[in-house]
Amino acid sequence: MDILVWLIPAALALGLIGLAAFLYALRSGQFEDLDGAAARILFDDDTPGKKGPR
Amino acid sequence: MSLLGRAAVAEAAQSAPACAHCGAPVPPGAGRFCCTGCEGAHHLVQGLGLDAFYRKRAMAAGALRPVEAPPADFAAHAVEEKPGLHRLELVVSGLTCGACVWLVEQALMAEPDVRRARANLSTRRLTLVWEGEPARANAFAALVARLGFRVAPFSPACLRASEDAEGRELLRALGIAAFGAMNVMLVSVPVWAGIDMGEQTRHLMHWLAALIGMPTVLVAGLPLYRSAWRGLRAGRLNMDCAVSLGVLATTAMSFSETLRNGDYTWFDGATALLALMLAGRLLDRAARRRARQSVAELLALQEGQVQVLGAPAPVPVERVAPGARILVAAGERLRLDAVLESEEALLDTAATTGESLPRRFSRGESLAAGGVNMGAPFTARVTARAAEGSLAAMGRLIERAEQARGRFPALADRAARLYVPAAHAIALLTFLGWWWLGGLPWQAALVPAVAALIITCPCGLAIAVPAVQVVTSGALFRRGVLVASATALERLASADHVVLDKTGTLTEGRPRLLPGDWSGEDLRAAARLARASRHPLAQALLRACPEAPAAEGVAETPGQGLALGEARLGAAAFCGLPPDPRGMSLHFTRPGHPPVTFRFEDSLREDAAAAVAAFRAAGLGVELLSGDAPEVVGRVAAEAGIALWEGGASPARKAARIAELAAEGRRVLMVGDGVNDAAALAAAHVSAAPASGTDVAQAASDIVLQGGGLLPLAEAVERARRAQRVAAQNIAFAFLYNIVAVPVAIAGFATPLIAALVMASSSLAVIGNALRLDAGGRR
User: Fold this and answer.
1) pLDDT value at position B59?
2) Residue B423 is assigned to a structural domain of this protein
3) ipTM, 2 decimals?
4) Could you tell me the CA-to-CA distances from B156 to B121, B296, B536, B710 in Å, in that order?
5) Which residues of chain A have a Cβ shorter than 8 Å from any chain B Cβ?
């Protein structure tokens, strides 16, 4: 049972890292436009903003 | 929605030559474009090297046709972010697919001074940051408009609809609850399965579960506790009360079990229940949020600016003071109550009185806000501030009606009112029974009591109804029926009588050319002149003959007609003919040909008769109520197959008729589009407005119909009824589950494992039943 001393904190720490990542993503607005994010991935930036032909 | 759009584009491409920009069918031999706007937009896109857009877009044919919008001043809406750096927020209507987002962003980024352009597909919000003058805002807005999207400044209403602070809080709470539930499960499963687990290890597990579970319950449950508290303070027992009490009692009992090292703790049940509840709540919001945003977007496009004489730029309506003199351009909507100062004005008052023919006003007559200028530009003196005018009075009426409707008890709440006290009583009796009669110590007696509470926890109930709502409003959204109010579906399902407005609701609301004794050659020649004008009748003529080429050197006499050399198109007097009192018409004279008259009529919507039949088939009485002249109303009623009709109804009469019907015990579905319908819409049991209607009518309605047709509304009634049936089934099912599970809990046989199984399986069953609703719709 000694192994629990390691396994449980490790499991919890991993879970907490996931939760922190979720809260960070939420705070930085990554859940604001789920439809757009799904569509954006289909477009490659072959006309990079500032260098594009005018 | 995107699938539908793609199919429509593909179809159009096969059957007829399609416009290279907007995809609308083009008459053979007219070239690659349906109009000059599309041609300009196409060249613009090509010039920017963004052709890829046309291969990747997925939208309805014709949706991207650039239209001329009344001038608006966007520079006033630009906000200075940092010195030299300005930001502008725009609503972009027509933004329906990823390709649109890409096109708009890339086209703006190609401007050298733009720093950031980001379009949000969910909220249709474009955020633009650039270096330099705020005045550049107008150029950027014009660029987006030239591509075929309609733009408007981001209004406070849009902001309310899209800035969803509460939704974000729910999402955060859900994340925390899900984390808590999964990790408590990690230590709970060993306890359930731990046959040879020692006492001390079990105690450690209990403490670990408490360490994770208690903060989770406290933090993630806040949105529910707050709602429960609000309900209690208003003297109502809502679903959240039951959930909050269940979760908190379970947590407290588990903590007491942890302290005395009992067999089981129930933290896993409490956290999983929270996560489920929050997920249901979030789904429910998401479904309605989309509809609310679309409605806010429609309203933002109508939110206007006014040309005040003496002011350098258009002024937002709410800042115009009484006494100001305003200029109303041809085709523009009058947004304030005013007195006419010009000699004469021709106003389309369909929205304010329901009359289908434009009315002539002379100097000194007062004009009610809401009319559209059909003649020459005129000046008028404003008599009331926007907040005190006739439109605002209507707005206050609508608010009152909405409050009354807000009190309509939703099905789930009605069920909860019976259910919650019963569940609590059972739990209390279980506790007292085991403590007094069973002789257990109070801590042990708590366990079966709380087990009963968590099993009766209206999980099924709380998910049963939202699941049905989500599926149904999603299906309706895809058909262009926007359900903006929470209880609208329930009220729609119970409607038994339809009252329809005529102008703009049953009819198109815009003139259409009638067949007459003119030749196709006459029409083409007249349409060439008409192309030069924005007058509604000229536009209607052009719609009948869109392939006519533009003519050079057409001179327009505003409110009178158009002249090209000797050829004249316009009012009878303008063409040198005797006056013609009959309806909407345009006269056309040219040398060497006899004069011809083009007559116009506001024709029925294509699906009007079918929709009336569908309403009747669904068992609803149908009635036509219009402010227009009785003979016109009678003719339209006969055409649409409506037996019961009334013409010449004033706005007050309309509202009174609705009240009359309500007094007879009817539940009225009112459909209308005008300012004159708003009072009736607000008074009705449930109401709908077409997206082409006035903003006042849309604000007064529960449902907005996008895509211009009544048939989807008739289908929506059927769908709403089916949804009600499934919701009732779900609630009955949840009750049945409890009847089986509660005795087990009362007897003290329930373990956390059983509770978890019961909870999960009943929720899944209820959700599965709700999904059945969509099965027929998608195919």
Assistant:
1) 67
2) no
3) 0.81
4) 19, 9, 31, 30
5) 1, 4, 8, 11-12, 15-16, 18-19, 22-23, 26, 31-36, 38-40, 42-43, 46-47, 49-50, 52-54
